[in-house]
Write a structure and sequence with these properties.
By secondary structure, the protein is of the alpha/beta class. It has 6 helices and 7 strands. Strands 3-2-1-4-6-5-7 form a 7-stranded mixed beta sheet, sandwiched between helices. A hairpin with a 2-residue loop joins strand 5 and strand 6.
């Protein structure tokens, strides 16, 4: 078990999917969010769901709602809200990446040190900013960016002490953006 919380980020717009990805049925579970929570429940110190509002969910979980000061839906708003909630490093995973394994998080975890502000998974396809460990030292930078209506996590990572951890395959990082991705994953 990792001594860090894991937050499943489930507050996106899902515009390319055409419906809310976090609420799609997956495997034996009524929602993709519940699938993710179930498979990681015994592997992290605690589990949480990041969302714009918890009202869309009809199940019990520890929800972290986006800070209402920021009406935009963006991963940076979610990340800022998550880091406001915790005063410790936190693992994050996008709800729409159902094949990321515990071994990936264990690999990220062993690269933690006192100078690092973000540890990001990277595969041949590219970096996976929502399969990562983020540190509370990033919160002032995030607040500054959001005050300037800047929402690009890549810019945050460029201006932080970021470590990218390379993985040989893209398979675990399949992202369910389109209906065809969802059908393939099922």
């Amino acid at each position: 078990m990792l001594s860090l919380p894991l937050v499943i980020i489930a507050g996106g717009k899902s515009s390319r999917m055409g419906s809310d990805k976090s609420l799609l049925p997956f495997g034996a579970f009524p929602t993709l969010t519940q699938y993710q929570l179930s498979r990681f429940k015994n592997h992290f110190f605690s589990l949480h769901v990041s969302c714009k509002t918890k009202d869309k969910f009809d199940f019990e979980a520890s929800f972290i709602e986006d800070n209402p000061l920021y009406p935009e839906s963006s991963p940076l708003v979610a990340l800022g809200s998550i880091l406001e909630h915790f005063d410790a490093p936190v693992c994050v995973l996008s709800v729409d990446t159902p094949f990321v394994t515990m071994d990936i998080f264990k690999t990220l975890y062993v690269h933690m040190n006192e100078k690092t502000e973000a540890i990001i998974a990277r595969s041949p396809f590219g970096s996976h900013q929502l399969c990562a460990i983020y540190f509370p030292s990033l919160l002032p930078k995030i607040k500054t960016m959001l005050s300037h209506n800047e929402h690009k996590i890549g810019l945050l990572l460029h201006n932080a002490h970021t470590v990218f951890i390379d993985f040989d395959s893209d398979e675990a990082f399949l992202n369910l953006n389109h209906p065809s991705d969802y059908e393939q994953a099922k």
